[in-house]
Structures are given as C-alpha cells and as structure tokens.
Amino acid sequence: MSKLDIVLLTGISGSGKSVALNALEDAGYFCVDNLPPELLSGMMTLEEAREPGLRRRVAVAVDVRSAHSLPHLMPVLAELQQDGHKVRSVFLDASTDALVRRFSETRRPHPLSQVPQPTPPAAMDLPRRRARDHDTTIAPPADQALVEAIRTERELLSPLREVSTVIDTSLLRPAQLRTWIRNIVQAAPARLTLVFESFAFKQGVPMDADFVFDVRMLPNPFYIKELKPQTGRDQPVIDYLAQQPESAELIAQIEAFLLRWLPALEGDQRSYVTVAIGCTGGQHRSVYCVEQLTQRFSPRGVVLSRHRELDAK
Using one digit for the tens of pLDDT, what is the confidence trace for 142-201? Predict the structure, then answer.
C-alpha cells in the first residue's frame, strides 16, 4: 500500500485553523475537519488503499470539540509514523487578547463557553507552564467567561502543542498564514527544520519562538535618512550593517550557540525549532540577522526564514 503524507492541524479556537485548512486543500491535500481521533487510524487505512503506488496527502483538523478523545490521538500518530507514513503536527496559537478580539468581531461562541468544560485527562497531564504563561489578560466581566474558556482550552491542548510545529497567528493576516502553512508542508522531510523569524519587540515576542535573541544593541539604520525606508534585505542596509563590527560578532555568537545546542534538540526528537530575532521595528537589524543566519545554516539542512512585520505589509 502507498504511504501517506499526513498533516495534523490543531490549535486554539479562533487562531485560524479554517484559513490553514483551506490553504492545505489548495495545496492538494485531502482535508477533513473535526475528525474524532478514534476514527483517524481507520480513515488512514482507507486512504492507503485508495490509490496504490501514489503518496496521498491528507490533512486532518482536530480541536477541543473532541477534547474527551484527545488521549487517543498521540498513540495513533505514533503508530502511523511507525508504519512509514510522514506525519507532521501543526499547532496554531494566538494571544488571549487577539482571541477575545476575534470572537468579539465574529460574534461566534467559543466551543467551551456553552458546554461543561472537561477536565484534562490524566493521560494528557503534561507540564502546562507554557500554556498558562499566555493567559496574562485581565478581562472585563463581560469577557471573563470567554477568557476562562480559552484558558481551559490551552490546558486541554497543551500536550499537542508540546509535540507540534507552533505558529503564532496573533499578528498574522490570513494571506500571511496561508504562506507560512505552505512553506511548512512543502519543506523537505528532515530530522530538524530550523526557522529564523524576525520580529518587532514593540509588537510583542512571537509565542512560537523556541529561542529569542535581542539585536537592538546594534547600530540602527532607521536613524539614517537614506536607509530609513529600506529593510534588512536591501543592499544599502546590508552593506551598512556588515561594516559594523558588532553585527559580525553578535551573529557569530548566535551561530555558535545554535551549533552547540541543536544536536541536543535533535537527540530529543525535536523536528522543528524556531529562532526569533527581534529589534525595535522588525525592519532593519532583525531582518538582516535572520537573512545572514539563514545563509549560514542552509547547507546544514532544512532552513526557513520569515519576517513577521515585513510579511504583514
């Protein structure tokens, strides 16, 4: 039977799963939304037999509506991988502020707001510090029930987040999210995919970052009239920053740090690591550093680069 290319799409309600699933469908994936985890294995068996000899691409969206069945999901994914299928799990997340705003704009109820909220099963009881760290919003009374539902959802889905490629959609436009999803699923299979992402500290640190480096101490091209409207991908800005000794030193230190610790992450079965590089506006210094690091690491494996603030324009 043919082997499958499987993308499990999950995440917090309101984080953009419908947009991502549409992007996967446009990319040629057979997509199923809200499939109960108990049916996943049987569905894949049917897909294997449909077109022998062809590698079928399947995307399945699973969310908190199947909360009571989630303990069955990760064992099924492990079995599919052992059978030779390529399985990738993508988790969409967003800040609580962004989620509250989106639910207010769409006027749709949260899936947990009108039903008894399930307690995370013991089988799913992994460390949840990261999920709790995202809930810093102090909401007015009218939003309190929604904030509580989002907090509970984070707790329920935290084990899936820990084993997934995470995309923070808080500041992403739909077109931007579609592009990032396509880049992830089109990347060649590898033990470890390394992503360098530039961002603006004034817009907040990306929630999907595994490592965060601050490059605001570098000389800022923003204050040079000719360079202000340009970006870290434009040659005049590249030439300016390349002439600064601090730039080469800082990039070399980041490179050395990653070279030291990436093998340990690979040994820990990590498949995706995001390195976020931040400056004030996400336009010059962080973009330059991301481009330089991408060039240095590209010969070593699968490396992706993205620029949160530039891509949003």
Answer: 478 899 999 999 998 888 888 888 999 999 999 999 999 988 888 766 678 899 999 999
Spatial CB neighbours of 150, under 8 Å, sequence gap ≥ 6: 12, 13, 96, 99, 100, 110, 135
Output the pLDDT for position 224.
Answer: 96
Pairing of strands 272-279, 302-307: unpaired
The three-class DSSP label of residue 142 is helix
Strand partners, 213: 277
Q: Please give the Cα distance from 59 to 32 (Å, whole number).
A: 6
- Coil, helix or strand for 294? helix
The number of C-alpha atoms within 13 Å of 128 and in the hemisphere containing its C-beta is 17
- How wide is the angle at C-alpha 282 spanned by C-alphas 216 and 130, nearest 5°? 85
**CA angle 68-70-76, nearest 5°?**
140
